[in-house]
Design a protein that fits this description.
Oligomer: heterotrimer
Number of helices of chain A: 11
Mean pLDDT of chain B: 75
Order of helices and strands of chain A: EEEHEEHEHHHEHEHEEHEHEEHEH
Largest sheet of chain A: 6 strands, mixed
Strand content of chain B: under 5%
CATH topology of the largest domain in chain A: Rossmann fold
Number of domains of chain B: 1
Number of strands of chain A: 14
Strand order of the largest sheet of chain A: 6-7-8-3-9-10
Largest interface: A-C, 36 and 32 residues
Chains: A alpha/beta (339), B mainly alpha (268), C mainly alpha (261)
Radius of gyration of chain A: 23 Å
Number of domains of chain A: 2
Low-confidence stretches of chain A: 1-14
């Protein structure tokens, strides 16, 4: 495994695509039972195709369990697809897996995935060695990354003493350890304090400005809206829409959102709304002391009487009519086909 | 009636917790292999001594074979009981279990009994190996009495396990503790050589462990002893066993109370 | 190419050492078992005199080395699963084989310290004469046996990657190996049908070579024959492990079983 500077491998910016996914699918066979073991197939990804340009920040959004993480794992060679193919920087994920691994960074995040009994420095040095980062660059890069992530003054402490946010930043540092050209991030800001999340987003943008290609998954719509040049919405293992954020909003251009804030609203009422013909989609936050409904409909004003009818046994504190956002577009696309 | 229900349900829970993730045929294979290999090891060492003229002869093989067959009880019983305690701690279920109003003693007894029967199976397999592979003569033995000795030793060791379990409550790695313990018993319980071979100072330690009495009783029974002849040994063993159960229960409830105060029920 | 691989092995070795230092209490059970067996053997051998003492002690030391390696190989991969790092490691361009090899060597090294501990205790408490006829040959044979045991551990490790019952197997394999390799008695005592199994175990030849190195009058040819056979067997182990690991990696990537369910 030759130890090359990955910058030597950078192709011409306009040549080819950074990521090409063609009809990727993944079915797992899950074994159940102790005495009589049966294998049931579970379809994690049905059919996913898309392309990402060099230097693009591409978003993959969708509800939990719809195949985002599985797709990333296939693209990063952690999983072999059941069918379909993909290439990263022109390298095939099955035939040239090792070439891909040298050039990409993966940030899966979470509480696990780090060696908690040793320090951040030791974690990064280890992975630097596994990625074949040139020896003379290694320690310098480790220091730079930890400084960049604001972890340098705790760098020699055991990772088990880190907060969730610090661990996430360490994951990010590790994702960059081999100076990758393409970076895959799975929900990079989840669980982070708002200020840190904001800084992380800024950092992601800086990386793109430096010419990196980034594919990230998120379920924060505003994040996708803010960061991504294009967004793919994935549902039940398939992509249901792929466009720029403004393009996606056009799905809901002809609609408005009626936002209702009240008390005493339950699932029952939400279901009633779903049944209603004028309601295109609805999202509900049913808190203990307050409930918020966001009702997507063609013409907001016409639905108000119906809202009052359904909610006659509840108390309405506030009702607003708003312009749809990317989140609403997403909701519509994700929920729309449930009817 | 409800006590029996707690007893049974905790036994089943224990089984699932310990073996639910093990495929049953695998459990059996493990039993067959592990019962044999420790015995085989020491038997061959003994035969090494015999063939080079350094030992009394075939009696040594019988001594070691029976001793090792019974020593298995230390592994299954003590190790398993501690394991259960630590698993609960790790799985976070201990808090839930302690929170139920169910009387705690039946709970413990339920689990321990499962391991008693598990241990007995190991010993029986071991004794079968001793007879079939290593030519130990069971002709004079009162088989029923032998079963009784094995059963009582297993119970006594399970009781002893409660003591260890009670003490290991705070310990971070109970598995380490358990591991050490099962091996220490090989030195102290007269498994491979008589307690008298140990340095004078250490000998009293042997008599804390029920296994010491059980192994001796087992050997005597295999050689043809009657109930009357081994009754004193059994009596002593049961005293040790019951004392451990009482102490174990005391320690467990005390530490649990302390743990509630300091909040250390979940492992670090 | 080789340099990169060695670097990975060393890095994994170093990480394993750091973990040992972080959790040193795990050394204890690994020392206890061989110590206990040595104790028992020495007590049994008491009065037998002659080379028996050294026989027991060397056997115990060997067992200490073996127990560690098996423990590390079986447990190492499970450990990665628990930490959630197995996926991340397999996503790097480095081979899992080299990573586990580094760990395996680190744990065999700790096994070596077990052996030293047993030797020290045996000579102090049991007054066993530790005179070694040829220290150089002794050292060479110990080191090579160490590597052989590490390589055997790799083979088990490859099977363990996919099995949910890793720890169970690790517990069960320890003793049979002690018996079959003739660590504390000549394998001639074993039933003839076990002998083939003894002969394919590298450690069997290694232990014999170590014993010869301690003997009063060494027959060099016999020593080198034993050692060479062990080295050849070790090479075969490494090749086999390499083959098994690549099969295992492919299967794990197909089933997604790298993450603890």
């Amino acid at each position: 495994m030759p130890m090359l500077e990955t910058s030597q491998l950078r192709p011409e910016p306009s040549k080819g695509k950074a990521i090409v996914a063609e009809h990727l699918s993944k079915t797992f066979r899950v074994t159940k039972g102790v005495l009589k073991r049966t294998k049931t197939p579970v379809v994690a990804v049905k059919d996913v195709s898309f392309e990402v340009d060099h230097g693009e920040l591409f978003g993959l959004v969708g509800p939990n369990g719809t195949g985002k993480t599985t797709t990333i794992k296939m693209l990063t060679t952690m999983l072999i697809p059941t069918s379909g193919t993909a290439s990263i920087l022109g390298y095939n994920i099955q035939k040239d897996a090792n070439e891909i691994r040298k050039r990409i960074g993966i940030v899966l995040g979470g509480e696990r995935g780090l060696y908690t009994r040793v320090s951040a420095v030791d974690n990064l040095r280890y992975f630097a060695d596994l990625y074949g980062v040139p020896a003379k660059l290694r320690d310098k890069r480790v220091e730079e990354l930890l400084q960049f992530m604001g972890l340098w003054d705790r760098a020699r402490d055991r990772v088990e003493t880190y907060s969730k946010g610090m661990k996430q930043r360490l994951h990010l540092a590790r994702g960059l350890i081999n100076d990758p050209q393409v970076i895959f991030m799975d929900e990079p800001t989840i669980g982070l304090d708002p200020e840190i999340a904001k800084e992380t987003r800024k950092m992601i943008q800086e990386l793109v400005e430096k010419g990196k290609t980034i594919l990230l998954t998120t379920h924060y719509m505003f994040e996708a809206d803010e960061l991504c040049r294009r967004v793919a919405i994935i549902r039940n293992g398939e992509i249901v829409a792929l466009d720029t954020p403004s393009g996606l909003k056009k799905y809901v251009m002809d609609t408005s959102i009626v936002e209702v804030e009240g008390f005493g609203i339950t699932e029952k009422e939400v279901c009633q709304f779903r049944e209603a013909s004028e309601v295109l989609a609805i999202s509900a936050e049913l808190g203990e002391d307050k409930q918020i409904l966001k009702i997507q409909t063609a013409r907001g004003s016409e639905i108000i009487s119906q809202v009052q009818e359904i909610l006659k046994n509840s108390r309405i504190y506030d009702m607003k009519i708003k312009e749809p956002t990317l989140e609403d577009a997403y909701l519509r696309l994700v929920e729309g086909s449930r009817r | 009636m409800s006590i029996i229900r707690v007893f049974l349900s905790s036994a089943i829970f224990s089984f699932k917790a310990q073996f639910g993730w093990l495929y049953p045929p695998m459990w059996l294979t493990m039993k067959l292999v592990m019962s044999l290999s420790q015995m085989a090891f020491f038997v061959f060492v003994a035969q090494f001594l015999i063939t080079t003229g350094h030992s009394a002869g075939p009696d040594l093989v019988a001594y070691i074979a029976v001793g090792n067959a019974m020593s298995v009880l230390s592994w299954n019983t003590v190790f398993s009981v501690i394991n259960i305690t630590s698993h609960d701690k790790w799985d976070g279920t201990l808090q839930l279990v302690l929170a139920t109003p169910a009387n705690r003693l039946p709970l413990f007894v339920g689990r321990a009994m499962l391991h008693v029967f598990d241990g007995m199976i190991s010993v029986i397999i071991g004794l079968a190996y001793a007879a079939l592979l290593f030519g130990v003569n069971f002709g004079n033995a009162n088989i029923l009495l032998l079963f009784a000795v094995v059963f009582l030793t297993a119970v006594a060791m399970a009781g002893f396990g409660l003591l260890i379990g009670g003490l290991s409550f705070y310990y971070r790695d109970p598995l380490v503790f358990a591991n050490i313990f099962t091996f220490i018993l090989l030195i102290f319980c007269g498994v491979n050589f008589p307690v008298q071979e140990l340095p004078q100072l250490l000998q009293p330690i042997s008599y804390i462990f029920p296994l010491t009495y059980g192994v001796e009783a087992g050997r005597k029974t295999v050689a043809g002893a009657s109930l009357a002849e081994i009754a004193p040994l059994i009596g002593q063993m049961m005293i040790v066993g019951i004392t451990s159960i009482v102490l174990g229960y005391f320690f467990f409830t005390t530490f649990e109370r302390l743990a509630r105060k300091t909040g250390s029920l979940e492992s670090v | 190419m080789m340099l990169g691989q060695l670097r990975v092995i060393y890095s994994a070795f170093r990480l394993a050492m750091l973990h040992w230092i972080a959790d040193p209490q795990w050394v204890i059970p690994n020392v206890i078992a061989p110590f206990v067996f040595t104790f028992v053997a020495l007590t049994l051998f008491k009065g037998a005199g002659g080379p028996f003492g050294l026989y027991a002690v060397l056997g115990g030391g060997m067992m200490g080395m073996w127990g560690n390696t098996l423990y590390s190989s079986g447990f190492a991969i499970e450990f990665e699963k628990w930490q959630g790092t197995l996926e991340d490691v397999m996503a790097t361009p480095s081979h899992l084989l080299h990573v586990i090899a580094g760990k395996s060597i680190s744990n065999a090294l700790f096994g070596l310290t077990n052996m030293v501990a047993i030797l020290v205790i045996a000579s102090l408490i049991f007054r066993v004469d530790l005179g070694v006829a040829s220290p150089v040959l002794f050292a060479v044979s110990i080191v090579l046996t160490l590597l052989s045991v590490s390589a055997l551990g790799l083979i088990f490790a490859s099977a363990f990657v996919l099995s949910r019952y890793t720890q169970v197997f690790a517990n069960g394999l320890e003793f049979p190996i002690y018996v079959i390799s003739g660590s504390m008695f000549p394998i001639a005592l074993l039933p003839f049908w076990i002998h083939p199994a003894s002969y394919i175990l590298g450690p069997t030849w290694g232990i014999e070579a170590v014993r010869i190195a301690t003997a009063e009058s060494i027959v060099p040819t016999v020593f080198w024959v034993n050692l060479s056979i062990m080295v050849v067997i070790t090479f075969i182990y490494v090749l086999l492990a390499g083959f098994l690991f690549s099969k295992v990696e492919t299967k794990a990537r197909r089933d997604g079983s790298l993450v603890e369910a």
